[in-house]
Amino acid sequence: MKKIYSLFALLSLFMLSGCSVYNFTGTGKIDAKTFQVNFFQNNADLIEPGIDRTFTLALQDLIMNQTNLNLVSNSGDLVYEGEITDYRITPMTATADQQAAQNRLSIRVNVRFTNKKKETDDFEKSFEFYYDFPGRDLPTGSVLNEAIRIIFERITQDIFNQSLAKW
């Protein structure tokens, strides 16, 4: 009897997923078929080379992996555009000899989202996240790569949630 209930529950999940009532990414029904992510220019005062391309690709990858939308280079049903507006390293805590014990890398991205199928979903909003690292480390090499990966993972997920998951 327990196996029958388990089988019924599993079958119900697949039926709900198949009829667009629910899917496992939490997006609900998306009327669009295509999306485009325009290049996010780095307009921050402090420029870190390459993060504009890295961010653009990270957002494209996230949307492709969590939806069945097709990526296009123009005339997309959903359009993501914007710019990196802030890249900042600030000391967070100090030691007794006035040295930074911990630093914080913060990145802010301004996003304009346009849904050509449902204009009430359009928005312009800034998304920001940070990464703390020891004061003795410089934000270069593997420390910088890890920081940017974590920051962009969070920012892209926040953008996805705002635009498609409606969280």
Describe this structure in words.
- This protein is an alpha/beta fold.
- It contains three helices and six strands; from the N terminus they run αββαββββα.
- The chain has helices at residues 2-18, 51-66, 141-165, and strands spanning 34-37, 41-42, 70-71, 78-94, 100-115, 123-134.
- Strands 1, 2, 3, 4, 5 and 6 form a six-stranded mixed β-sheet that branches.
- A hairpin with a 7-residue loop joins strand 5 and strand 6 (123-134).
- Helix 2 crosses helix 3.
- Residues 17-25 have low confidence and may be disordered.
Choose one word for the global shape.
globular
Helix content: 25-40%
The termini sit apart by 38 Å
User: How many strands in all?
Assistant: 6
The fraction of residues assigned to DSSP E strands is 25-35%
Total DSSP helices: 3
Order of helices and strands: HEEHEEEEH
Q: What are the segments in which pLDDT stays under 50 over at least 5 consecutive residues?
A: 17-25
Rounded Rg: 20 Å
Write down the overall mean pLDDT.
85
**Biggest sheet overview:** 6 strands, mixed
Instruction: Give me the secondary-structure category.
Output: alpha/beta
